[in-house]
């Protein structure tokens, strides 16, 4: 059977011409906005505007394209627009091709510049000194818990959380050798822990070895016969090493949450789509009163502010003194939030706002 695809392909070609023309028209307008922003000192990356655009295009979508795919396309469009407005440098916890790199690219797209950094402390310093415009750092994993270094770094820093990213973590077994010839498996300790049952079933005799990062593990696997790495597929593509098995993580809902850090806070989105993070210290009250934690939470609860996370960390200033890291619904500038914080400050020696940011899209 012969098919005449010509007319359909001609329509597609015509649509492609229209799409390219419209994209360039949109980006030209974005460039004009960039000029105005630069002349007035405005922010180039505006998280609340990004959130509004992504919600708008989803509301306009009538299919057959999926909302997630449409959002991914528009993230790249916005990335190209940002690059025209002002070149941005995004610092992230390296090395290249790690999950943090993947999260940064998902948020900012392919049109900005990225810089891998060795430690979370280095990342904070780079943004504080203006060596990077924004940073992407991991804050917690659904399986392994919070990243303590990130929490501790907020205590002394004035940087603000301006956005968050949720990235589903999928691990692959990556090697130049077939499965039955693999004798050693390298990866970051957390990645090995997240795939331990799979590795025990399929490679019971292989030696599991910690590596500084999943990317370094892939480099070792590339250079050493009989060796594999556990890492994301981005690392396999980046270093040119075949994927032997996909989705080897033990839990299907393995997700990591990342923060985007900047010098200036994000504006309010509204409509219940804002979150805020704080560090609160109870000081001597936490040791002397059994109901001190409840007392800390009451000003929030009484004003309808929902608590979505609370975690304690030693202050490292004196024994049994703790900081409480909390995430709540609402923006810092909301009236009920201001009232709650004013009450908290009357009996808490430290109430530090870490930032307000949109609920993650997609």
UniProtKB/TrEMBL annotation:
Q: Say if the entry is tagged with keyword Lyase.
A: yes
In terms of InterPro entries, this protein maps to: ACT-like_dom_sf, ACT_dom, Chor_mutase/pphenate_deHydtase, Chorismate_II_sf, CM_dom_sf, CM_II_prokaryot, G/b/e-P-prot_chorismate_mutase, Preph_deHydtase
The answer to whether UniProt assigns keyword Cytoplasm to this entry is yes
**Where do the ACT domain residues begin and end?**
281-358
What positions does the domain Chorismate mutase occupy?
A: 1-89
Q: Which residues form the Prephenate dehydratase domain?
A: 89-263
Q: Where is this site: Essential for prephenate dehydratase activity?
A: 256
Q: What is its EC number?
A: 4.2.1.51, 5.4.99.5
What is an annotated GO biological process for this record, any one?
L-phenylalanine biosynthetic process
Instruction: Give one Pfam hit by family name.
Output: CM_2
According to UniProt, the name of this protein is Bifunctional chorismate mutase/prephenate dehydratase
Q: Which organism is it from?
A: Horticoccus luteus
């Amino acid at each position: 059977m012969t098919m005449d695809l010509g007319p359909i392909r001609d329509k597609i070609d015509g649509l492609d011409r229209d799409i390219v023309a419209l994209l360039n028209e949109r980006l030209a307008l974005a460039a004009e906005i960039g000029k105005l922003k630069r002349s007035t000192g405005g922010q180039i990356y505006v998280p609340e505007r990004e959130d509004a655009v992504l919600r708008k295009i989803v509301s306009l979508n009538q299919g057959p394209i999926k909302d997630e795919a449409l959002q991914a396309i528009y993230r790249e469009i916005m990335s190209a627009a940002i690059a025209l407005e002002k070149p941005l440098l995004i610092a992230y916890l390296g090395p290249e091709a790690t999950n943090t790199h993947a999260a940064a690219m998902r948020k900012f797209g392919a049109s900005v510049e990225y810089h891998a950094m060795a430690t979370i402390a280095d990342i904070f310093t780079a943004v504080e000194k203006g060596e990077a415009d924004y940073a992407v750092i991991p804050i917690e994993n659904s399986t392994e818990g919070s990243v303590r270094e990130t929490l501790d770094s907020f205590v002394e820093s004035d940087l603000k959380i301006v956005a968050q990213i949720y990235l589903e973590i999928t691990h692959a077994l990556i090697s130049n050798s077939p499965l039955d010839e693999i004798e050693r498996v390298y990866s970051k300790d957390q990645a090995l822990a997240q795939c331990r049952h799979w590795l025990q079933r399929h490679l019971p005799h292989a030696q599991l070895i910690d590596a500084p990062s999943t990317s370094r593990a892939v480099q070792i696997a590339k250079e050493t016969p009989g060796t594999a790495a556990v890492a994301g597929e981005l690392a396999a593509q980046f270093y040119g090493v075949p994927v032997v098995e996909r989705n080897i993580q033990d839990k299907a809902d393995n997700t990591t949450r990342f923060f985007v850090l900047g010098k200036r806070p994000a504006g309010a989105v509204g409509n219940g789509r804002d979150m805020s993070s704080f560090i609160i210290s109870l000081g001597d009250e936490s040791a002397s009163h059994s109901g001190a934690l409840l007392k800390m939470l009451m000003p929030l609860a009484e004003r309808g502010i929902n608590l979505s996370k609370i975690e304690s960390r030693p202050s490292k200033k004196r024994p049994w003194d703790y900081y409480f890291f909390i995430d709540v619904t609402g923006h810092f500038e909301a009236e009920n939030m201001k009232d709650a914080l004013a009450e908290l400050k009357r009996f808490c020696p430290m109430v530090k706002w870490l930032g307000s940011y949109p609920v993650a899209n997609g």
